[in-house]
Structures are given as C-alpha cells and as structure tokens.
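Now for our target.
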Amino acid sequence: MRDQETAPGHPERRLSTKETAELLGVKPETVYAYVSRGQLGSRREPGGRGSTFDAKEVEALARRNRRESSGSSGSGGELSVRTRITLIEKDRYFFRGVDATELAARHSYEEIAEWLWTGEMRPEITFTAPRATVAVARRAVDALPEHTGPTDRLRVAAIAAATADPLRFDLSEDAVLGTARTLIPTLVAALPPVRRTHRDEGPLAHRLWARLSGQEADEASLRALDTALGLLVDHDLAASTLAVRVAASARAHAYAAVSSGLGVLEGPLHGAASGLAHRMLLDVLDQGSAAPVVADELRAGRRIPGLGHRLYPGEDPRARALFALLKDVPGAGPALAAARDIVATTARHTPLHANVDLALAVLTVSSGMPSTAGETIFAVARTAGWIAHALEEYGERPLRMRPSGHYVGEKPPQPLPE
C-alpha cells in the first residue's frame, strides 16, 4: 500500500474513506472525526459519492499515531498522550485554551462540561436522566451496606445504569454524548438524599447539595459548590483519567470507562484527599489552633493534607478561585481561619500553598457535610472530564495505550517447579 501511494506514477493518489480507515486502523466515522479536528483534510471529487483523502497526509497521520502510541515522550521516558482538552502551565490551567478559572466563574458545571465535550457553549443547559434509568441505579445503590462510601455508590450506580442501556456499545460521538448527559444526573440522583425535601431538577449543583448537606442552601453556598464542580471537571492526565483512557483505548463503553476512573479515584492520594483535609480542619476548630494538629500529623510521619501540588510550584489556581467565593458563604469564617492557620503554621517549616483539597474541605466543613463529601464532589465533577477523554480516545487507534513490560525476572528457560 505504501509503495503504491508514494510511487512516482501516483504523486497525488487519493484514498477512499474505507482505505483511509484501514490504513489508520480506525472505524470510518473516526476518519471524519480527524477531519473535524483539523488533523486530516478531505475533498469531495466531482461526481463522486464520498470524500477522498491525500495518501501522503494519511500515511503521515498513521506514522504520528504509531509514534505516539509507543508511550514515549521522547524526553523523560514518561507516557505522553496527545490531547486538546486541558493544558496546565505556570500555575494556571486551561480548558480548550480558555482559562479554566474564568470559565468556572462565569459558567455552570453543565455548560463547562458541554464546552469540554463539543467545543461549543450552550447557555443554561441542564442534564436530565430517564426515570427508568434512575430507578435501576437507585435500587442497586439502596441494596448496598449503610457504611458504603460515596465512590462505591457511584460506581455501582454507573454499572446499574449501563445494564439499563442497550445502546451502550455504540461508541459514536452522538451516542456517547447522549450517555454523558444522562449518566451524570443519574449518578447524583442515585445517591441517598440527606434532606427530606429535595429536587431532582434544575442545576446539578442544587440536586447534589441535597445529597451532601442537611442545611438549607443559600445562593453563595450553591455558587461555591457549582464553581467547585466546574473547577474540578478535568486536570489533564491524572491517574483516574489515564485509567479511563486505557479503558476507552480498549473500546470499553462510556459507563465502563467512567467506572474505571471511579476505581482509581478512591485512592487516598487522589479523590479521597479532601476527606483527610476535612478531618484535619475539624481537629483545628476543636482545639482552637493548628499548631498541635500539625505537630501530631508530622509526629505520625504523615504529610499535611491540603497543601502543595506537584503541578503547581506556586498557588493552586483552583484553590485560589474557590477560597475567593467561600468568603461570601455564611458561616464559613471559622473554617477559613482554620485553613489560614494551617498554611501559616506549616510555612515555618516549608512554604507550601493550599491546594484545592483544603478549599473543598472548607466548603464541606462550613456546609455541615460529611468528610466524604469532597470525594463525592470530586467524582461527580471529574466524570465530565473522563467522558471528554473517552471521546478523544475513541477517535484514536484502538489499543494504542498498551505499553510493553520491562522483564527483570529470572532468565528463561528455568526448570519446572517441583
């Protein structure tokens, strides 16, 4: 194929959609996804039925995909994945090139999710879930033990919702977007409400509040929660997001990909980190000073939760944006003061800035939420980002996220064990 494409007698050979798909190792609809992203040009021939593609351009894209699928960044040997979703740079981060903190300040969580998925802003969009799907998810979640954590509940809800969707294996962009717009509200609706009177309509932040707090929601608190969801939508290739892309690379459906992300998110070094900061804040409020609490953490050999971030040498922009809103939340003053005390106390030893986990902890503590609330907020928010990454990965060559192991065991052949 390659010799024929580049031979002197075929300097401008055009490939059909089918030939292009075969050369790239993708489905025909993925070829047009490359076109829509500007990665591949197409031309409709006069009198022809379909589009054609320049053979040299297709071959160059195939080589680039093979090079990127090797998993080498070419510099440090770390896994590198091409993405158009999130850029983290100099204590700022951007969604599709737009400052993420500004997006979160001006747009709802649902609007930001749509922006990540489609590159289009749909003002005042809200997500709704089919009643039948919600009923299936709720029954599955209600059958779990009472002590079940939020991430386990969400994972079970996602699996249950998948069983109610016979079209889940349709990985076309429109189908996956339809799944995304119903899965996220289903996850929220499947969580047991804390308040007797709650709504399953309107902005997602309003619905989620009733699953996290027994307090009456005021506008400042709801705005802080909605902004937190928007800020946490995505953060490049975090561990859970990488798991989602691996699943999507194997062509797992969107529900399964989200379930993969939830499985990784539960780790104490990822989504559960805000719970540690929540409990530390309560200890500081109880003792009236951060000094003894920080001393106990260090004496136990633990790092202080809610401080520092490996991607931000300076201040975490998500924390900065959320702290600014928390100043207007009624009753948040004591928790904010406790957070400042923690930062000031640890600064005597090492100058670490507050990260988004500490800001989330201030929100959850001041709103009367449990210590697991931050994990729930994180998981619901990040589901939108996972869907964006799954969509992106579905447009790539299947199974490209398959690194090779570096075997360091006994050199074969070894004798059979007795």
Q: What stands out?
A: Residues 91 and 312 are 5 Å apart (CA to CA).
